[in-house]
Specification:
Length: about 100
């Protein structure tokens, strides 16, 4: 399992519209094969900053089963107009305790 972390800054004044768009886009990403879960969080100190957390079976599942499909285009069309700039996206794996 890998965790996708996307730091998303939205245009000032677009926070509520972005959240509403995500509510629609959520169904798209969670329907992708290999997506285990997704959640969006919003900054307290910086309300224009959001963090998307998505659990994938693998980086390949994210890339091949979502980013390389038309579903990604639909997802991006919903949320992308609210971006202040490109999201910063990285993948992480758990560190054993």
């Amino acid at each position: 399992m890998v965790l996708e972390v996307a730091l998303i800054d939205v245009l000032p004044g677009h926070e509520d519209e972005f959240a509403a768009a995500y509510a629609q886009a959520y169904r798209i990403i969670t329907a992708a094969e290999g997506c285990r879960s997704a959640r969006m969080t919003r900054g307290v100190e910086t309300p224009t900053r959001f963090v998307l957390l998505v659990e994938w079976d693998s980086v390949e599942a994210h890339d091949q089963n979502f980013r390389a499909t038309e579903a990604f285009g639909k997802w991006r069309a919903l949320i992308g107009p609210h971006f202040a700039g490109p999201p910063r996206v990285e993948h992480f794996v758990d560190v054993p305790a």
